[in-house]
């Protein structure tokens, strides 16, 4: 199986006082690589990536040495069928941009600027916030991203919710219990309270009410029977 160098794209932001605005946006384009076949070792000054794609019949592999240090514990990651995207927190708070991504100043054929994410250094304040980063998973607590067995440095993607197509914040919810609770609470708009047809059945079982005046004029069957049993008194002349 052939080993190839994946395309890497990057952009950055910088700040001297806000760590969350001081980061590298890094994407490794490696299509059709399942989490179980991914290994990523992220350190303060370097990144090592390897992933195998059965459908593409190749192994992606790359090693990067950063221009300056990053903070792995404060970085984030997201995996899809097309690529692996990371937001790497720069360790040093600094207003100026890194002059380049890598320590080596030679031009790398695989490295490209992500123009969809890039903004000039003096235009950062006007740039809109990237909401996609809020859906990414933190790398902190993953054992330093050791890159050992178990794929992706030991990250359990089923717990993080990455690559599973689920909605953020929905992990671990008992849908059956939630739907049952919705039925008792009136349900969602347009869903009829999730309570089935009980309300309609109750309406069908209720007898029609007669007019009060008509009911006074009409004798009940019991009253009519009692009246017929009484002997008639004839008037004697």
TrEMBL record:
Residues 197-214 have a biased composition (Acidic residues). GO terms for molecular function: Hsp90 protein binding; protein-folding chaperone binding. GO terms for cellular component: cytosol; nucleus. Residues 3-102 form the CS domain. One of its GO terms (biological process) is chaperone-mediated protein complex assembly. Residues 179-237 are annotated as: Disordered. InterPro entries: CS_dom, HSP20-like_chaperone, p23-like. Residues 181-196 have a biased composition (Gly residues). Belongs to the p23/wos2 family. This is CS domain-containing protein. It comes from Alternaria panax.
């Amino acid at each position: 199986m052939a080993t190839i160098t994946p395309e890497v794209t990057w952009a950055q932001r910088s700040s001297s006082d806000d760590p969350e605005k001081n980061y590298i946006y890094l994407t490794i384009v490696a299509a059709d690589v399942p989490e179980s076949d991914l290994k990523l070792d992220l350190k303060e000054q370097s990144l090592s990536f390897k992933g195998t794609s059965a459908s593409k019949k190749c192994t992606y592999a790359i090693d990067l040495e950063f221009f300056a240090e990053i903070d792995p514990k404060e970085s984030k990651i997201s995996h899809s069928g097309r690529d692996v995207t990371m937001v790497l927190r720069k360790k040093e708070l600094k207003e100026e941009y890194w002059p380049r991504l890598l320590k080596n100043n030679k031009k790398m054929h695989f490295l490209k600027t992500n123009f969809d994410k890039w903004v000039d250094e003096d235009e950062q304040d006007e740039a809109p916030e990237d909401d996609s980063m809020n859906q990414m998973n933190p790398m902190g607590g993953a054992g330093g991203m050791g890159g050992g067995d178990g794929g992706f440095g030991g990250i359990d993607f089923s717990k993080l919710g990455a690559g599973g197509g689920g909605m953020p914040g929905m992990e671990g919810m008992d849908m059956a219990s939630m739907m049952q609770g919705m039925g008792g609470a009136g349900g969602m708009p347009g869903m009829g309270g999730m309570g089935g047809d009980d309300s309609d059945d109750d309406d069908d079982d209720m007898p029609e009410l007669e007019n009060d005046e008509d009911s006074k004029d009409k004798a009940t069957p019991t009253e009519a029977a009692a009246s017929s049993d009484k002997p008639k008194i004839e008037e004697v002349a």
